[in-house]
Amino acid sequence: MIQFFAPDIKSTATLPQDESAHCVRVLRHRAGDEIHVIDGEGSRLLCRILDPNPRGVMVEIISSEIIPPSWDVNIILAVAPTKNMDRMEWLTEKAVEIGINRIVPIICTHSERKVLKTERLQKIAVSAMKQSLKTFLPRIDEPTPILSFIKEITLEEPGKSAMKFMGYCDKEYPLRRLIQEYKPGKNVVIMIGPEGDFSPEEVKKSVDAGFIPVTFGDNRLRTETAALVGIDMIHFINATANINK
Amino acid sequence: MIQFFAPDIKSTATLPQDESAHCVRVLRHRAGDEIHVIDGEGSRLLCRILDPNPRGVMVEIISSEIIPPSWDVNIILAVAPTKNMDRMEWLTEKAVEIGINRIVPIICTHSERKVLKTERLQKIAVSAMKQSLKTFLPRIDEPTPILSFIKEITLEEPGKSAMKFMGYCDKEYPLRRLIQEYKPGKNVVIMIGPEGDFSPEEVKKSVDAGFIPVTFGDNRLRTETAALVGIDMIHFINATANINK
């Protein structure tokens, strides 16, 4: 199945220009063809092409269904952007494929990258959503100073009620801490620091705000690997709990 | 900690040329400095530099210890090389970081890539081993036709006694099948097909040889994502079992 992404499909019945060009010029769709369109907010619409205009394909909406995510908790990843931008792009793709609700790039004292253009990450997220047959587009925040993020996330739902974990290099906090402490069904915030780790002040403020320090394995993992393993663990614990219900 | 890789360190007490140049020219080590050297077979040696020759650093071995892997089962990944080589390189890096014993590129009927140079994957594996503080270098096979692999893996240990799973797109086989069937502590072979999936003959021969078809999630995952999630699940099931012991 190929999914086209058109956030305003319900009000405009038209595909955006890039999706239109892909639909008509690359995939050679014609008037009368049926296509699947997602709105990034959970709906997948079956549409029939009325006008195959490569600058704006006009469609008739035949039917619409809500496709809920395959996971039932809210997963927020706060991650210090990696020095190498490729690694951040890769993480975005994989997080969306596996399942994520929101990605917040956090700027820390020891961050090697303090500037980040989120436009390209947005495009990667759209592409991964389409490819992995999802219908929800995760939110990608603009880069946020870590202390602002910690303050904000504790004030509003779903962050307020979420369990909060921080990946921290100190050997004192082993993998088992996440496995033992995470309660299936709970919303979750996973925070991963930069290559140079969190500063002592950042650790203190996070712990004061309810973050539980963990490592995600007995190995030294790169930032983006730790983030992905953390997300995967949450999915896995919930999937196992659902099976054992 | 920085680890230098010298497979013949025990017999030669000398670093290979590329590691020597890195040690002396980049890291500016001098005679008398102590460095950590791994042999890729489980040993980490504390060495003192005698001659900081950038073409072959000569050392005196002070002490040697065996660092066992942090996981206690043998994990073999057989994976159809992705069309995009970057994705295969990325998978190699991440699999080594998370923990893998052997990677076998398998050539399938529907493979979009049937030729693969493993030299670059070897380099990536060495780099990931050093970076994640491991001491064992996973084996990376030359590309192997899938039917040869299936035959070979069932004849010799550890493949012979391993549980064998194949990631197969058919919706009939859900995630829970891996979670329910994998027995912690067992060696495992995970086989992931190409973008175009396994052929019916490949599925039949695999199932006849004892492979259990599974999917690794409710999402449509790319080949390299499915492979990584599969490996991660095995680590996670074993880690959870070890905690509950």
Description:
The structure is a homodimer of 245-residue chains. Chain A is of the alpha/beta class and 245 residues long. Chain A contains 8 helices and 11 strands. Chain A has helices at 9-12, 17-26, 85-98, 118-131, 146-153, 176-181, 200-208, 223-244, and strands at 3-5, 34-38, 43-51, 58-66, 75-79, 102-107, 139-140, 144-145, 163-167, 188-192, 212-214. In chain A, the strands form 2 sheets. In chain A, strands 5, 6, 7, 8, 9, 10 and 11 form a 7-stranded parallel beta sheet that branches. Chain A has a 4-stranded mixed beta sheet with strand order 1-2-3-4. In chain A, helix 3 packs parallel to helix 4 (118-131) and helix 3 (85-98) packs parallel to helix 8 (223-244). Chain A is elongated and about 60 Å long. Chains A and B meet through helix 3, helix 6 and helix 8 of A and helix 3, helix 6 and helix 8 of B.
Short overview:
The structure is a homodimer of 245-residue chains. The first copy, chain A, is α/β, with parallel strands linked by helices and 245 residues long.
* Overall SS class of chain A: alpha/beta
Major β-sheet of chain A, in short? 7 strands, parallel
Percentage of residues in helical conformation of chain A:
25-40%
Number of helices of chain A: 8
- Please state the CA-atom Rg of chain A, rounded to the nearest Å: 20 Å
Helix and strand run of chain A:
EHHEEEEHEHEEHEHEHEH
Q: Most extensive chain contact?
A: A-B, 30 and 30 residues
Strand content of chain A: 15-25%
Give the N-to-C terminal Cα separation of chain A. Answer: 32 Å
Q: In one word, what is the shape of chain A?
A: elongated
**What's the pLDDT, averaged over the residues of chain A?**
92
Low-pLDDT residue spans of chain A: none
**How many beta strands in the DSSP annotation of chain A?**
11
